[in-house]
Design a protein that fits this description.
- The protein is of the alpha/beta class.
- It has one domain (about 30-99).
- The protein has 4 helices and 3 strands, in the order ααβαβαβ.
- The chain has helices at about 10-15, 30-40, 55-65, 80-85, and strands at about 45-50, 65, 95-99.
- The protein has a 3-stranded parallel β-sheet, sandwiched between helices.
- Helix 4 (about 80-85) links the parallel strand 2 (about 65) and strand 3.
- The longest helix has 11 residues, at about 30-40.
- It is elongated, with a radius of gyration of 16 Å.
């Protein structure tokens, strides 16, 4: 039986790609669940990569949206945590959720 390695994100792919014969990527469904919760409460979601926070904030401002923040830095407000999105009250309020 072969060995199994676990890594996180793009850096993990770079570390493992030359060391393994198969690379399995598992999505833990945070993004999908967050989108489902936000849309169920009437929000429009504009997905945006997490790598450029400035661009994400500018996209949110241009859309009149409330930007989400990284789950680890959010004290109050929206993030990929579905719990943070349960308080959305909207008349089609757009939300930018980074993934």
């Amino acid at each position: 039986m072969g060995q199994a390695f676990t890594e996180w994100g793009l850096d993990g792919i770079k570390v493992l790609r030359d060391r393994v014969s198969a690379l399995v990527i598992v999505d833990v469904l945070s993004f999908s669940t967050a989108v489902d919760v936000a849309v169920a409460r009437g929000a429009s979601v504009i997905p945006f990569p997490l790598v450029d926070r400035t661009a994400a904030r500018e996209a949110a401002a241009a859309a009149g949206a409330v930007p989400g923040e990284a789950r680890s830095t959010t004290v109050a407000g929206y993030s990929l945590s579905p719990t943070s999105l349960t308080s959305i009250v909207t008349e089609r309020l757009p939300a930018v959720i980074s993934r």
